[in-house]
Amino acid sequence: MTWKIIEKDGKLIAVKDSGKFPEENHFLERAGIPNAFRTRDFGNFRVDSKHPSLLKAKNSVLKYSEEYPAVDGGLLIMGPSGTGKTHLAVALCRKLMLEKRADCFFLDFRESLREYSYLQTQEKREEFLGFLSIVELLIIDDFASRNLTEWEDDFVFRLINRRYGDGLPLVLTTVFKGEELEKKIGVRMRSRLYEMCREINIEALDYRSKVRRASFRAEKGGKDEGKD
Ligand SMILES: Nc1ncnc2c1ncn2[C@@H]1O[C@H](COP(=O)(O)OP(=O)(O)OP(=O)(O)O)[C@@H](O)[C@H]1O
Ligand SMILES: [Mg+2]
User: Fold this and answer.
1) Among 3.40.50.300, 3.10.450.320, 3.20.20.10, 3.50.50.60, what is the CATH number of 3-219?
2) Which of these, 17, 119, 123, 163, is most buried using a 10 Å CB contact count?
3) What is the SS3 string spanning 16-51?
4) pLDDT tens digit string along 125-137?
5) Residue 69: phi, psi to the nearest 5?
6) Which listed ligand is nearest to 141 at the C-alpha?
7) Best mutation site among 50, 110, 143, 207 for ligand 1, i.e. most ligand atoms within 8 A of its Cβ?
8) In whole numbers, what is the pLDDT of the chain averaged over residues?
9) Residue 218 has pLDDT above 80, yes or no
10) Which residues is 171 bridged to in the sheet?
11) What interhelical angle do 187-196 and 178-185 show, nearest 10?
């Protein structure tokens, strides 16, 4: 990806340089939202009475988007696989970019490490780290989704530490929480995140399997309807 530095409200920030797109797509493309998630927003995030944490999570993220930029820090969205963490992070990113004209970057944790590892020179790696460190709002999806090598750990720690030092918001999604997360990223990183992010905990069923079950039922003519 290519980047450029622009001045916004007297601050230098990094934005992705992504050519010409129609207005909405331009913003979403610039933010790095995966194609499959382009249509995800708060409106199509469904909640049900069986899982109150879904409504709570949706309301917390929505509130954050409404209050932005008058917010204190970022968000740490935790929950099992398929419970809508990425959906909510994308919804936030869309809303902030389209309605608040915030410069957000949406990064997949593994992809960003891969991209970093492909950079050939120390100078290019420092540049990459430098840009991510000053992006207005950085979203890292699937944070800590794999164990880190020493140099990856150094990269992630420095990124978080720089944003921590500059008071810049970070929105993370992860399947880990508590001690498990601490084990993955270490005490020092975890400690900074405590201070940097408001925690949102989702406890719900895997939506992917729910959707599969529903379409299976539909194919069978809805015989099992209501069993769940
Ligand atoms: N509450 C919901 N309402 C509508 N769609 C949902 C909801 N939760 C999840 N989905 C959809 O289900 C799919 C999986 O959700 P998502 O990718 O956000 O889960 P996740 O928590 O990020 O999972 P993982 O940890 O595996 O990345 C997506 O297509 C998403 O849009
Ligand atoms: Mg996800």
Assistant:
1) 3.40.50.300
2) 163
3) ECCCCCCHHHHHHHHHCCCHHHCCCCCCCCCCCCCC
4) 999 999 999 999 9
5) -90, 5
6) 2
7) 207
8) 87
9) no
10) 75, 139
11) 120
Beta strands in 56-203 (DSSP E): 74-78, 104-108, 137-141, 170-174, 197-201
Structure confidence at residue 21 as a pLDDT band (50, 70, 90): very low
In this structure, which amino acid lies at residue 209?
S
Distance between CA atoms of residues 174 and 207, nearest Å: 16
Cβ-based neighbours of 2, under 8 Å, separated by 6 or more = 16, 17, 18
If DSSP codes are grouped into helix, strand and coil, which group holds residue 193?
A: helix
Cα 88 to ligand 1 centroid, rounded to whole Å:
8
pLDDT per position as a tens digit, 197-212: 999 999 999 999 876 6
> Is the shortest distance between the CB of 42 and ligand 1 below 6 Å?
no
Tell me, in angstroms, the distance from the centre of ligand 2 to residue 115's CA: 19
85 lines ligand 1 (CB under 6 A): yes
Biggest CA–CA distance in the chain, Å, is 62
Share of the chain above pLDDT 90, in %: 70
